[in-house]
Write a structure and sequence with these properties.
About 40% of the residues lie in helices and about 20% in strands. It is built from 22 helices and 24 strands. The chain is globular. The termini are far apart. The mean pLDDT is about 95. It binds D-xylulose.
Length: about 550
Amino acid sequence: MADRLYCGLDLSTQSLTIVVLDLFGKDLQQHAINFDSQYPGYQTEGGVIMADDPTVVHADPKMWLEALDDALAWLQNKNLTQKINGISVSAQQHGSVYLNQDAAAILANLDPARSLHQQTPMIFSRETCPVWMDSSTNQECLEISQALGGASKTTELTGSAATERFAGPQIRKFWKLHPEKYDQTAQITLISAFITSLLIGRPAPLDAGDGYGTNLADIRSGTWSPSAVQAAAPDLAKRLPQLVIKDTVVGKVSDYLVKKCGFDPQTDVIVGSGDNPCSLVGLGLIDQPDIHAISLGTSDTVFGYMPALSHHKRSTGHIFGTADGNTMFLICFKNGSLAREQIKDRFGLSWDDFSNILSSTPAGNQGRIMLPYFLPEITPLVLEPKIHQFGEWAADDAPAHVRAVAEAQLMAMYLHSNWTGKRPQRIFVTAGGSENEGLLHTIAQVFGSEVHAFDVKDSAALGAAMRAAHCCQQLKGDPVSWNALAEPFQMQKPAKVAYPDPQQVDVYHDNNGLLGVYKACEAFVLEQGIDPAEKIALFKKNFR
Ligand code: XUL
């Protein structure tokens, strides 16, 4: 048991993180590779290539190959490869990767004398991959939605309304713009399964945690939906990977990895998944529907375990699969850490200043509301970036701007997760922003819940390693529960706790509170409601 190590690799928007753990939560080893600084040749900003059109956001998969080479080299230099029993991949969700007819043969015959990125640049039929930040497929979403009988039918079938950043609409756009390249495409997969394919040396299956975020699967049966696949592009079914609905071993590490990096040939590779489904595991939330999670990373997300499918009518949010074959809900916001950073940098603040402002200024910001759409927004759908401000502002008032961006993000999370049912008593916060005590304090007030954050912030990579451990141990006939795996990191040991203060909670939740004001401002900007001036005045009268 002592040497049973498990590895998680998380290829997120901005970096590749490696986590290696044993079964007791001791000797956790971590390493992160930042794309912008390590691979300047790809000219990424925050890990992605932004086009002139702000809705078009891609990444070069060759950069990911370089990062995987470097991650494997790190494991080898640390003498870890031969001790790893199982490995699993987490990745930013939704981005689609296009492989040509030669890809399978090239992956099966890799030369251990050379790196991955030296011998695989020719496997792609599309040079760059649209990623989750891409929102250029609005027209394709309309077409798919129409073909499937409208938004609510699409949501019922696929778990989400037709969604700009999902693979189905991305594939449809590719087929429409480049039919000849689509014809040359043998397989279209998501990033988690693509990286897993590189580990096993052949095209890997895709799990439902990621697969349901495509608008191509039937979430009721856990299979690709023929009508959704047909609505996206012709002859797509034969190009999609096999879909699996519960963690499983998809193969042993390839001969290439054994020879090049010194892996044991018996090392199991467990199906990869999206970063949010992996974070759910890393936070110990499998089978814990009463605790919700907020991830404050490049994207902000709210998610939680959902043992039974929700039939609530909704226009936003998604259902994805979980490691144990059940489902989770998720709502995603594109203007996460980058929006907070814009405000921080504009006023020359440090993250400590940002946190102190949130801890020391009064809740409600005197009725000032900002809608911080620095980038096109996912929830609610806003395709043209623009910052909207309501109430009275001084341009140089740093505290008002800091509070406004944080309150806006958190109120949007609260309001757009209304459909998920009973509010949790506790919220676990993860990713980079979870270090910020001011943000944790503000979440506790906006949600009226107790908030926990943890020492290990890379819950996606941690979750991938736990998935590997859970699946392999089960196969060995020596099962370890999800709770036992998470306990040393999450379930018992919050590093920081924030509590709701009834008076501050009231500032948001009162009938004339700030949540109502925010809702009115959002509706006004989306052209679905009247000028919120009267609501703002009422708020100011009640909460001076
Ligand atoms: C979730 C989503 C983002 C990405 C970021 O639906 O689009 O959270 O997974 O990595």
